[in-house]
Specification:
single chain, elongated, five-stranded mixed β-sheet, alpha+beta
Length: 322
């Protein structure tokens, strides 16, 4: 009996501390649950923001989370996804983190007066850095003393804003049940299929790399631009940047979409999920790596980099942002 007991302890220890087994257990995309923009607008949680003279509507998540129903719905969806092994980034906690660091400002201004716009959602994503945005929308349908709930879940790649998974359905008619319980009942019939769609997307991301976009800009007073020749072979700055992009992406995946003397835009850029140190590799890491290459190898001019949300890396030649 003692030998059996020792064997069980050893087995538990192996399963508990085997890094390969643990890696498989947590190999799921991180998720952040948001209310859908349509729900935000229907419930008057959009605010007007002046974006360089243009009035745009932006979601006011801090105000919306004061709505008890929304708070309970997000909590329930998070619980359902956590029960299925997904790491989560919480909307309310991230808002508080941003507020504590005084990071919710309308724009950052470079030393040369250049403006870098970043909306509220981009700031949230830049802080939390989830793999998937999970949008939730619901409607309560009254039927006499009974009521049911209709829901829609949408899983969006946080980097590209491309849809990856959807689920919609209507729960049974009930009397007196709270919203979060009604929603759980409705969602449970669809959650496994939704989970499978998410994992299909994530498996592809593991194999092909995370998809982001990369933009390089030149400040107006920079003495060098992307069409400046920088060696005796006649290579322009843009030629060597394009080559670096192919050499530093997964399977060389990047497409140069726009090239002018002051702007280069790459789409479909695939970066690895992990860096050489084994830690998560983000669009910010990629932007930093590209910035250092441009600064050290191609030009002695000052360069800066930043990210928008989780999926756009920006490198600026000839200036530093404040």
């Amino acid at each position: 009996m003692k030998n059996i007991f020792k064997t069980l302890i050893l087995l538990v220890a192996i399963l508990g501390f085997n890094p390969k087994i643990n890696a498989q257990a947590v190999n799921k995309p991180s998720i952040m649950v948001f209310p859908e923009d349509g729900w935000m607008e229907e419930n008057h949680y959009m605010i007007d923001v002046n974006d360089q003279g243009t009035i745009k509507k932006q979601p006011d998540y801090a105000k919306a989370l004061l709505n008890k129903d929304l708070y309970n719905v997000i909590t329930k969806i998070e619980q359902l996804m956590r029960d299925r092994g997904y790491p989560l980034e919480n909307l309310s906690s991230t808002l508080k983190d941003i507020a504590d660091r005084n990071a919710l400002k309308n724009a950052e201004t470079s030393e040369d007066g250049e403006n870098v716009e970043e909306g509220p959602k981009d700031k949230l994503l830049s802080t939390a850095r989830p793999d998937i945005i999970l949008y939730v929308k619901w409607n309560v349908i009254p039927a006499g003393p009974r009521k049911s709930v209709k829901f829609t879940l949408s899983g969006i790649d946080a980097g590209t804003n491309k849809p990856q998974a959807t689920a919609t359905g209507t729960g049974p008619e009930v009397i007196g049940a709270p919203l979060d319980i009604m929603l759980e009942t409705a969602v449970l019939d669809h959650i496994d299929g939704f989970n499978n769609q998410l994992m299909t997307f994530f498996d592809e991301m593991v194999a092909k790399g995370r998809e982001i976009s990369v933009e390089l800009q030149v400040f107006g007073n920079s003495p060098k631009k992307f069409n400046t020749e920088i060696n005796e072979d006649g290579d322009e700055l843009s030629d060597l940047i394009t080559k670096w992009m192919k050499d530093n992406t997964v399977n060389g995946a990047s497409t140069l979409q726009t090239k002018t003397p002051t702007l280069m835009q790459f789409k479909g850029v695939r970066i690895p999920l992990r860096g050489e140190d084994g830690n998560a590799f983000t669009s910010d890491d990629f932007a930093t790596k590209l910035r250092k290459y441009v600064r050290k190898t191609l030009t002695p001019l000052p360069c800066s980099s930043y990210v928008v949300g989780t999926g756009k890396a920006v490198v600026i030649l000839g200036g530093k942002s404040k």
